[in-house]
């Protein structure tokens, strides 16, 4: 038997924690550059549809599984389907959390390092691409920032659900909103910002391709921390008195809102100062520092932006580590400090090859990918979508959509799920996830 299990003290605590898990680098960094390269508002509209049809049903499903079983991802499936191999879905979630955090911590470390680069100041004549490549191509600085970020994450998880996660999300999430709003106000008041707003809000359907739909579905899936066991784990700390469909709506709504608001912080500034809004993955660490260098008061706003990235990364990282720790505490009866420290150290060590993938191990390639991209591909293109697909199939066909809806609707709230939800979780969500997964694998290995 599992001993006393901590529970969120309030609905607000759960919503902030779950939304914090969903809000990460993908909302602020990835969402903006994907929007910029996929038709602006046309992409946003498709993304919102994907959130409603795929993201929301899966969030409800994972939270319901967690609350029903009061267990970690592995234990949850063992409880619902004892004596069957369905527990492997939970094992994939734990594995995904382990792998993702090992490289996510490195990218978050880059954000921490850039806070101090912004303090030092960005000069208009700087070689921003060279500065970034010089940082990630060095040996010890990326390891240092990787270690610092992991220590911050560990410090929160060791303290537990109430004294650690809940206490800190109540600080970090309002701070994230506050910083984001300051950046939006500054961006919108720049001369020429209107062109950026027009670019962002104007749907360019002529730029929409099949890839746009796949990108929207993928963004909806990955931004909500689905398939990695985070929502199952956080749901396991949820009291039966809280309504799941309503809370899931708040979580999905906050995650989406932050992504959309981030666009108003980035596009007006990029346009006002004459930069490319479709700069791609280099937008955060190469294009935006150049924007800040050309902006009055840019050093201050550069600090705020990279602090925003760091906070968003931290709220996601604590949920990733909590998935792994909860598994060891529940199933192996480890103490929380022991599980946190040993897994945190293991994740740090496993991540070191990624930090060296641009320096001492830059010659190492797997299917043409460097080490960090290989870790990312393993988690994002295999473990996460497969875990999400199987979770939807299990909930809809093995546990049954009817039982899922009955459990989720207890107690009744403002939102009540029924037959429409069953159709989405049984057919639409698995088909969409399978499409994204298969297409992504085909494009990766066919060179397209």
From TrEMBL:
Transmembrane among keywords: yes
Keywords annotated in UniProt: Membrane, Transmembrane, Transmembrane helix, Transport
Bilayer topology term: Multi-pass membrane protein
Compartment(s): Membrane
Keyword Lipoprotein: no
UniProt cross-references to Pfam families, sorted A to Z: SNF (PF00209)
GO CC aspect terms: membrane
Name by which UniProt lists this protein: Sodium-dependent transporter
Lineage summary: Bacteria, Pseudomonadati, Thermodesulfobacteriota, Desulfobacteria, Desulfobacterales
